[in-house]
Amino acid sequence: MSDLVSDNLNMKFTTPSGLVVHALKDVSFTLKKGELLSVLGPSGCGKTTLLNIIAGFLNPTGGSVKLGDNEILAPGVDRGMVFQQGALFEWLTVAQNVDFGLRMKGADPIETAKKVDEWLEIVGLAGFGDTPTYQLSGGMQQRIALARCLINDPDLILMDEPLGALDALTREKMQSLILKIWKETGKTIMIITHSVEEALMLGERLFVMAPRPGRLHKEYRLPFAQMGLTEDPRDIKKTQHFGETREEILSMIWDMEEEIMGGGSL
Amino acid sequence: MSDFLFEQRNTIVAFLIIGLLVSLALSIIKGRRVMATERTDLVFGNPAKALGGWYWIVTGMSFVMLIWFYFSWDMARAYNPTAANELCQVAKVETAINPMRSQFPLDNPNLRGTDLIARDSAQLERINNSLKTFALDYEAELEIAAILTSLSSALVDQANPAYIKDDLVGEFKSIASRIDHLTTSFKDPDFPGQPTAVQQAAANAQPGWGDTGKEIPVLPATPLGYRYAAVAAEMKVIAKDFVQLRNTNPHLLAQIADIKLRIKKAAASAEADLSLSAVEQEDRSTLYRQLNKMLKRIDNGSIYPPNSLNGVQSSLVAFDQAHSDQQGYLKTFDTWIMPGGRIMAGNSACSEQGSGRWLPKPSDTLGTLARIANPDIGFKDVPLLWYRWQPVGGMIAFLFPDWLASLVPGEYTRHNQDGKINSNFKSKVQDFVTGNYDSFSIPVPMGHMWDSIVRVVIGLFFGIVLGVPLGLFMGLSRFAKGFFDPMIELYRPVPPLAWAPLILTIFGIQDDGKIFLLFMVAFAIMVISARTGATGTQLSKIHAAHSLGASHRQILRRVIFPNSLPEILTGIRIAIGVCWGTLVAAEMLAGTTGIGFVENVARKQSDYEVIWVTIIILGVLGLMFDLIMRSVIKRTIPWRGKG
Q1: Which residues in chain B have their CB less than 8 angstroms from residue A87's CB?
Q2: What is the percentage of chain A residues whose pLDDT exceeds 90?
Q3: Is residue B376 part of a domain?
Q4: N vs C: which end of chain A shows fewer Cβ within 10 Å?
Q5: Do residues B438 and B459 both lie within one domain?
């Protein structure tokens, strides 16, 4: 099974002035195939560094990450990525964006076209294939980014604040879409987010990270993602369990932020 | 067709001006109406208010064209084609009278005699004061001072009415009465009577205003013109007679003769006196030379008693008045319809001066354009833009280097004993790579415009093809950035024209030098814009491409290059503009074809119309290039600013 195993991961950056920043310290966890993980934490806690290491954009200074049997040393198609702004190629149409990965591989064009149609159908953009991406709204662009990533059939999907730039309503819809895709494809998904509610909704497991040095602070196992597959997310948010967990995590992050700012009292 | 247009140009211009006035008025009305609807928008500085507005474009264009028609005197010529000819006759009178006028306080504040007395007395005074600085003995100083006194009295005695000759007084009276008579004739509408058939024929035979370059028909052709021409001829004689008069009365002549003798004697005795040192000799001869000079100034008798010229002066004033009055409408026309200059009469021709001269008439400019656009005439034997038949063989040969033939085994052929040359395979290959065989011809564009365009396009092409890859490389690699940056930044800030003399000297005045110069210009711009584009690629896009499995080459080609396209295309647009400017200047420096060359030759010949034609051609071609680039940009990178 292609589990994601992080083993004692350490990451130190040296600034040009010689200062050493400990971005990640002894991060160890295992993410089983098909699990949905959300990562939460104040700014500067190393969330994005962790994601970049898993994606293969950064080499850790200590420890290792393995996806299945392969140690992660470089970017690869087995790990798909979705970014905050979509990072679409605006000179290409929707379909050309979605099939980018397959074209780079030199896949059969007819088959590719079929897959593109399927995925556009899944993300709710059927018929938009020939539209230039810059004409679409932020939510639609994010759907394309999802399709572009999923069409490559990666083992692991990494999302870096994927819904951060969307308005509240679109955000809820996209959360449902991500849950739907998770359910239907059974992919392992790791989502980094700023929003506590989003982390609760999109986290079968949830890591809260702490800064200085960046480390895993607390882990939760939550039922809300499972519930979200069948129930109305608004009802879930009204439950006592959801509310309590949210308050607990919020005060946890609040304390961390205060620590960073110098612990001043209001 | 063009002949008809040329002959009818005054009529066409007349209607055109009316059309322009109408469109000016209508577009202003339309513009004001639109502005009235915008009163509800109270935001000063709202950019929406600066959008659109074709009517203001029409207003502006009409305004500029009207200004051009007006200040180039095309309007004057359109509505009054004989005005210049009549003003030419007016100018003749002015030219005739000028030598006489300068004697009187008409244009200058002083009478000429007053000025002369003031100047010469001051000079005598100066010599007198400087005597102390010369090495003179008492006697010599005394004698020179005495001569100076005599000179002074010879000067002032000319102003004494007691000495003036009676016949000179008579001459003045005669001149005055001749002027009076001429003034009377001037006012007579029938003067000088009907022109003779010969005069009329000559007047009709001369080309019209502007038919030949800037010339204005010089012979009178209208009643007013005849009158002015006749007055001018008469006045010329009177003025000549007047300026020959001299106040050479016996008293003056006697004084002059006496002074001359005394200077001569003093000079001779000084020369004979062996006791004088070299310095003393030198000083005295300097002084006697100065005295002789003063004598020559005074002895020409151009000073008269103060009131002796009153009669001539009042006649002249009356004549001036008549001259001004008789112009009638022409004076107003000259002031208001032919602004910014006047017409001058030379000995054999009249010419436009001021804006009429350096601002060619739109109709003439168009005519000149039509003339040099005619491939049979062209400019310096080269048409502006035309085609010629060129054998295909030569063009194919251009693609193959000549040394290809040398690679073929065997020897080049040699003529045999009979003087025949037998070809072999090697010589056939040689013929092929040099284009030395019969082939059919195809039309190829040529001419000044074509040459300029081709130079820019080739220079730009190489600049893009070499500059963009280097720029992208520099945008991706710390080494390339550091290594190439100093080289480019060392040559780029130097104005291209500063390179021109060097490059043109190395490469010669033919196309190579100019193309290389343009390549240098375009290259630097393209490198910088491609580099900016490459470094401006969003990291997340590259991340995405990486995780979608793209190779380095694919990322460069499919992500970084398209992402840099907006900057690259903007760079091309800038490069075209800079290349165009550099090319024209380079063509002015050296070469035998090209628009810049045409303009430079025209400059040397002071051919304003050709200069303006080249300016217009350059503007239109530059605009065309820019419009092409704008539409390319619109088509290629519609996403720009929307990513």
Answers
A1: 538, 540-541, 543-544
A2: 2
A3: no
A4: C
A5: no
Taking the C-alpha atoms of residue B9 and residue B81, their distance in angstroms, rounded to an integer, is: 11
What is the average pLDDT value for chain A, to the nearest integer? 85
Q: Is position A245 within any domain?
A: yes
Residues in chain B: 643
pLDDT of A263 above 70: no
Q: Which residue of B has its CA nearest to A57?
A: B543
Buried b (16+ CB within 10 A) or exposed e, B444-475: eebbbbbbbbebbebbbebbbeebbebbbbbb
What is the CB neighbour count within 10 angstroms for residue A214?
25
Angle at B488 between CA B483 and CA B491, to 5 degrees: 140
- Residue A9 within any structural domain of the chain: yes
Q: Are A134 and B643 in contact (CB under 8 A)?
A: yes
User: Number of folded domains in chain A?
Assistant: 2
User: Which secondary-structure segment (H or E) carries B199?
Assistant: helix B197-205
Crossing angle between the packed helical segments B448-476 and B478-491, to the nearest 10 degrees = 140
Collect all residues of chain A within an 8 Å Cβ-Cβ radius of residue B548.
77, 80, 100-101, 104, 148-149, 152
Looking at the fold, whether B279 and B419 belong to one and the same domain comes out as: no
Residue with tokens 């100034």: B297
CB contact under 8 A, A148 and B547: no
Residue B176 lies in domain: 83-343
Coil, helix or strand at residue B573: helix
Residue where a domain stops, chosen among A153, A180, A213: A153
Q: Which residues of B touch A (CB under 8 A)?
A: 538, 540-541, 543-551, 554, 558-559, 562-563, 565, 637-639, 642-643
Query: Which residues are CB-contacts of B195 (< 8 A; sequence separation ≥ 6)?
Result: B203, B220, B226
DSSP conformational letter for B196: P
Q: How far apart are CA B555 and CA B544, in angstroms?
A: 10
Q: B583 is written with which tokens?
A: 């090319």
State mean pLDDT over B397-421. Answer: 81
Can you tell me the distance from the alpha carbon of B588 to that of B575, in angstroms, rounded to the nearest whole number?
Answer: 20
Q: Do B540 and A87 touch (CB under 8 A)?
A: yes
Sheet containing strand A20-31, strands side by side? A20-31, A4-14, A62-67, A70-71
| Set of chain A residues whose Cβ sits within 8 Å of the Cβ of B560 | none
Quick: pLDDT tens for B152-169: 999 999 988 888 888 899
Confidence class of residue B214 from pLDDT cuts 50, 70 and 90?
Answer: low
Categorize the per-residue pLDDT at A266 as very low, low, confident or very high, splitting at 50, 70 and 90: very low
* Per-residue pLDDT band at B433 (split at 50, 70, 90): confident
Chain A / chain B CB contacts < 8 angstroms = 77
Amino acid, res. B259: I
| Residue numbers of the domain that contains A146 | 84-153
Residues from chain A that touch B569, judged by Cβ atoms under 8 A, are none
More confident residue, B436 or B516: B516
Report which of A56, A149, A64 is spatially closest to residue A101, judged by C-alpha positions. Answer: A149
CA B87/CA B99 separation, integer angstroms: 20
Mean of pLDDT values over B134-139 = 84
Indicate the pLDDT class of residue A184, thresholds 50, 70 and 90: confident
Residue A218 has pLDDT above 70, yes or no: yes
Domain's final residue, options A130, A153, A176: A153
Return the H-helix or E-strand segment holding B501: helix B496-507
pLDDT at B230 over 50: yes
Question: CA angle B223-B219-B237, nearest 5°?
Answer: 90
Facing residue for B549 by CB, picked from A87, A89, A104: A104
In a domain, A49, yes or no: no
Q: What residues in B contact A116, CB-CB < 8 Å?
A: none
Cα angle at B378 between B376 and B381, to 5 degrees?
85
Q: How far apart are CA B138 and CA B156, in angstroms?
A: 27
**Inter-chain touch B543–A75, beta carbons under 8 Å:** yes
- Is position B356 within any domain? no
